[in-house]
Write a structure and sequence with these properties.
With 246 residues, this protein is of the alpha+beta class. It is built from eight helices and ten strands. The strands form four sheets. Strands 3-4-5 form a three-stranded mixed beta sheet, with no helix packed on it. The chain has a three-stranded antiparallel beta sheet with strand order 6-7-8. The chain has a two-stranded antiparallel ribbon with strand order 1-2.
Amino acid sequence: MDFKDIKSTRHYLYDNLEEFKALVPDTAVIAKWRDGEEGDWVLTDDGCVCQVLKKSKIGDKDCIRTLCGTFDVNGSYKMVGENGIVDNIYSFSGKHSSISDNLSGKQQLFAQYVAKGADAIKAYKKAHPDAKSEPYIKHRTSSLLKTESIQKMIDKKIQEVLASEGATPEYIIGGIKTIADIADNDSNKLRAFDTLAKMSGMYDTQDKKSEQLTVWAGFSPEQLEALNGDKKLVAHAEKTTKEIKG
């Protein structure tokens, strides 16, 4: 048995039906997880037992969220519980992330605080309450923000926060597509198509010279400075520069 606390509520993943029946008697288990409704206990494809935490429509997909991940009930992915609870229950197909394997617990806490909007210096102090030297804290904060694994973890945590509010990639893409389909003027329609084209990678070419799209709103001057940003910068978008060869 394994468990995960979500918004102060503990949720469980049981190793098998026998364990579940011993600990949660007189509770029905749906044999086919694809038929489960929100709140139902279901059997995974490898015989584990978990609860359907959320059932919703994402784009044109009927999806359920469990401790094993988020799944399209009409998709081909199997729900497997033998590897334990996934790192990101909001990700599709229940893939396990290995980013956290390279980070200490305090580094993960730092990334989590930053992802939730905390000032980087304050995030470091919260993750390292014993740290007292201000110069050392600033140096370590700057160094951490430049670390690729920390950047990936911050991005991962941001995605989790967005997904917890329903702003999944599928939801965002679906919203943009809806605008492209029903926009009442060509300007809005073209902007929506342009955004979708960029997300799909249609603008990538072998002659691409630079690609950068960053939004720093909400980041502190220390964070911006650590990432070689301008302290006055609020949002920055540098478009891809291409060359057309004749």
